[in-house]
Amino acid sequence: MRKIIVSMHVTLDGFVAGVNGEMDFFLLDDEMFDFVGEFTDQADAALYGRVTWQMMDGYWPTAGDGPNASKHDRQHSKWYNEVEKYVLSNTINETREKTTFIHGDILKAISALKQKPGKNILIFGSPSACHELMKCNLIDEYWLFINPILLGKGIPLFANIENNIKLQPLLTKVFPCGVTAIHYSTAKT
Fold first, then answer.
1. Using CA atoms, how far apart are residues 83 and 61, in angstroms rounded to an integer?
2. Is this structure's pTM higher than 0.90?
3. Hey, what domains does the chain have and what are their CATH numbers?
4. What is the pLDDT of residue 39?
């Protein structure tokens, strides 16, 4: 069975963005990009909420094309263009190559998607989509990139959790920029 894996930058106090969606305080470095590239190699699909997908789709298809594109931009752009994309949206109902829009019964749709043959399914960002998947207990692993900053308010990663979600830590890694990555698997009951 395919795994749903969340990869999310988060502040030490649990926010994935500021009150207005700003993410300019997250720290990044080349070592982190290389690290993330290793687990995108293990995924052949991406799952997004509508807002994050629109942001990603406005950037990644051509991000690696320019002569000054970074190694990360070239690699992630190639990956983005090759993988199947699934978007949770109640407002977009169109057909696109390599993009499927999911609305209605999320539990049924994502459970069926996990049963299809293939590699892992990654979620980058998309806090609202993560909230919905958490409610349905559909997330198998979390890669949390904890940034050493406290916001006090903003968009939380964990919100409206209706049931306990037990996590098992698998790996911790500190990057030169000060970000600590923690990999958790969920303990399904």
1. 11
2. yes
3. 7-159 (3.40.430.10)
4. 81
